[in-house]
Structures are given as C-alpha cells and as structure tokens.
C-alpha cells in the first residue's frame, strides 16, 4: 500500500477492534506512560473514527488548552502490513475543566468539534501530500535544526493556514465568541462579534506562540526568526487574504484585543486554568 492511501489506512487502523493493539504499540514505543495509554478510548462521530484521551491535568496539553490533536509517529506493520514506513497517528486529548470560575467559558463539545475539524483536514492533507509525515518529523518547531529553520517555519505556517484557519472560522460560525489572553500570571477572557477579527486574533496568538517556541530553542537568533516568520506569514497571507502586509494586520488585531482583554475582560489567576 502506497503512502498516498493514508485516508484508507487511517480508517482501517483506527477501529475499536484495533484499540488494544494500538495501546501495545504506544507502550512499546514509549509514548505517554502505561496508565495514560490505558485511558485511551475509541470514538466515532459522523463516520469519522478517532482515539481519544481524557485527562485532568496539563501534563500532555499546553497552557490554557483544553483540547488538542497529538500527532504520534508509530510503526503499524503489525496491524496493517501493507503500509510502508512510519505512520502519523493523531490522538485527541481533552482536558477536563475543573475550575468552577472557568466552566462558563469553556465548552468541551465545541473544543471537540474544533479538533475533529483538524482531524478531517489533516487526514485529507496527508492523503494528498504523503511527504507531510516525514516533513512533520524533520521540520516541526520542537525538534528542527536551525539549519532547517526556514523550512520549519514554512511547514508550521502552512499547517496553520490549512488546518487551524478553517477550525477558527468554524468555531465562530458555531457560536464561539470568547478569546483568551495569558499574561503576568493571569488569564483574561473577553468576547468579539466580529468574525474577521476573531479569526485574525486567534491566528495572531498562534503565530506569537510559534515565534516564542522557536526563540526558546534558538535565543540568539531572535531577529532572524522574527523576520523569517513575518516574511512567510506575508507570503502565505497574501494568497489567502489578499493583504499586502498580513503580519502587520494580525499584529494590530492582536494588540487591540490584548488591550480590550486586559481592560474589559474577565480575569482569573493563572493557576485556576490549570488545576
């Protein structure tokens, strides 16, 4: 089976019958700890099957996040012998909202829908672009070499625009209006009824976090990284939005909502977001 058959392989692999075999593979390859692997379950929605892990801590999920797709590279030959090479297996992680103050602002069902949109787009993208799997291993922001920094930035921003952008649009269309700001030990929550600005703010937040991730790894290359990101955002943004300077547009929206969130948003101590 060729790697271009990713979609078909995914649906053959991700079944309830294969769950225990997948757990064995994850344990053998050292993903998560044994107790965590045991908590992985199988679910299906609208003919889209997936494995899901429900957690109540931030151990496997980022700051302020309550849902994510964790892309895992696994050997699946013991289950699908025809597949050649490493397989990219997305596992959905959902974090329980334990803070009573935050529960009114966190909609677990909407977070799951957001990640299911990601899942559908990533399946389609890999099916059309089978090299994505190897590129994700080499160029992801967490492990790329500085020699590959430009390729990594292009990879991560391409992923942002083909995968995150449609999900942000869907969030708004499904009724999401809240946006979040984390600063100085506080979490601020405010709302927006402007679709374009809502989407642009979330894109800007994503880009800001991506920039911070690169700089934390290459602190002596801050200017170069910032310039490379701006150039790539402007290049891809012009094709998508038609803006001459997408980076500037997103920065304006980001600072606007940072100001509004700090001044008019609901505020919580950061530890309330992580308990």
From TrEMBL:
Lineage: superkingdom: Bacteria
Protein name, as recorded: Uncharacterized protein
Species annotation: Desulfonema limicola
């Amino acid at each position: 089976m060729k790697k271009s058959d990713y979609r078909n392989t995914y649906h053959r692999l991700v079944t309830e019958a294969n769950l225990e075999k997948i757990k064995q593979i994850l344990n053998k390859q050292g993903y998560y700890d044994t107790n965590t692997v045991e908590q992985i379950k199988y679910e299906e929605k609208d003919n889209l099957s997936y494995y899901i892990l429900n957690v109540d801590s931030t151990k496997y999920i980022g700051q302020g996040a309550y849902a994510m797709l964790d892309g895992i590279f696994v050997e699946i030959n013991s289950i699908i012998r025809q597949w050649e090479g490493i397989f990219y297996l997305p596992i959905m992680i959902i974090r329980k909202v334990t803070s009573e103050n935050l529960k009114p602002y966190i909609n677990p069902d909407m977070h799951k829908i957001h990640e299911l949109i990601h899942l559908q787009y990533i399946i389609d993208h890999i099916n059309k672009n089978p090299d994505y799997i190897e590129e994700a291993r080499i160029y992801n922001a967490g492990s790329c070499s500085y020699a590959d920094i430009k390729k990594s930035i292009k990879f991560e921003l391409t992923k942002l625009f083909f995968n995150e952008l449609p999900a942000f649009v869907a969030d708004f269309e499904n009724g999401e209006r809240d946006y979040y700001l984390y600063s100085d030990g506080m979490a601020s929550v405010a709302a927006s009824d402007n679709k374009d600005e809502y989407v642009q703010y979330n894109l800007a937040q994503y880009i800001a976090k991506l920039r911070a991730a690169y700089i934390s790894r290459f602190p002596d290359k801050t200017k170069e990284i910032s310039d490379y990101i701006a150039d790539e955002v402007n290049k891809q943004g012009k094709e998508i939005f038609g803006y001459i300077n997408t980076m500037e547009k997103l920065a304006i929206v980001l600072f606007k909502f940072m100001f509004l969130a700090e001044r008019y948003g609901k505020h919580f101590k950061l530890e309330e977001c992580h308990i």
